[in-house]
Amino acid sequence: MGSATISLGSGKLSLLSIERRLSPNFGPRKGGVLPSLIVLHYTAMPDAQAAVERLSDPAHEVSAHYLLDQSGGAVQLVPEAQRAWHAGAGAWGDCTDINSASIGIELCNAGDHAFPAAQIQALKSLLKEVMQRWGIAAQAVIGHSDMAPGRKQDPGRWFEWQDLAKDGLAVYRGAPHRHQLPFFEAAERFGYRRPEGANSEQTLLETFRQRFRPKATGPLGEDDLKILSDLAQTYPAAKAF
C-alpha cells in the first residue's frame, strides 16, 4: 500500500497511509446530502486484491469509499464527498437512502474469523478522521446488517464492536434506564426497521444479537430487552442525523 498522506476529496489530508485507486462506481450524493452515517462491511472474498477488483468493476455496480486489508493497509476507492454503492436496500432510522447519507468501509474478512489487530487499528484511525471531518456521532457507526436485517450479515459475529465503543467510535451499551420498552418499539427507536415476513421478531433479534450479544442463543429474553431498551433511550436514531 502507499506510504504518503493523500487528499480525501474534502480538502484535508489523512494521517493514515492510504493508496488511492478510484473506482468508476460512484455518483453524486442525492439532494446534496452530507455523510451522517458510517457503514461497516466485510468483503467475504478471498483477499483484498479480489475485493478491489470487484469494487472497481463497472459490471458489478458496487463500490465503497475505503477497503482495509488484514495487515492494516488502506485503499480509497471513492472520494468521501461522493456517493459510493455499498449499502443497497435498507434503512436506519428515517434514512432510506443509506448510500447518499453514508461513508462505506469494507474490511477484508470472509466473515468466519477474527479481525486482525492491525486491521482494527487502521479502522480506528480511519474512523476517527472521518467522524471528525463530517461530525458523525458514535451511534451513527453501524453495520451493514443493522440497516438490512435478514438480508446482510456483515461485519458479523466476529467483529468486536465493544472494542470500537471503548474508543468512542461506536456504541455498545446504553445508560441504564428503569423504564423498559417493548422489543419492536426499542428496536425502531434505536434505528432498526422491522423486517417484513412472519418471522420478523426472530430476524431482528438475530440482527441485534449479532452485534450486541454475539454468543446468545434461544428465544427473546430479559437481557435482550434490557440492552436494547437502554440503547434506544440513550441513542435514539434521530440523534444520529
Structural summary, described in words:
This protein has helices at 48-55, 98-101, 117-134, 144-147, 161-166, 183-190, 200-212, 222-234, and strands spanning 18-20, 26-27, 37-42, 66-68, 74-76, 83-84, 102-107, 141-143. It has 241 residues and is α/β, with parallel strands linked by helices. The protein has 2 domains: 18-166, Lysozyme-like, CATH 3.40.80; 183-240, no CATH class. The protein has a 6-stranded mixed β-sheet with strand order 1-5-4-7-3-8, sandwiched between helices. It has a two-stranded antiparallel sheet with strand order 2-6. Helix 6 (183-190) packs parallel to helix 8 (222-234). It starts with 17 loop residues before the first strand and ends in a 7-residue tail after the last helix. Mean pLDDT is 92; it is low at 1-11.
Shape: globular
- Give the termini separation: 33 Å
Largest sheet: 6 strands, mixed
Rg measurement, Å: 17 Å
For CATH, the homologous superfamily of the largest domain is named as Peptidoglycan recognition protein-like
CATH architecture of the largest domain: 3-Layer(aba) Sandwich
Q: Please state the structural category.
A: alpha/beta
Give the strand line-up of the largest sheet.
1-5-4-7-3-8
The portion of residues forming beta strands comes to 5-15%
The overall average pLDDT, rounded, is 92
CATH topology-level name of the largest domain: Lysozyme-like
The total of beta strands comes to 8
Q: Estimate the helix proportion, in percent.
A: 25-40%
Oligomer: single chain
Please tally the helical runs, counting DSSP H or I stretches of 4 or more residues: 8
Counting structural domains, the number is 2
Low-confidence stretches: 1-11
**Strand and helix order:** EEEHEEEHEHEHHHHH
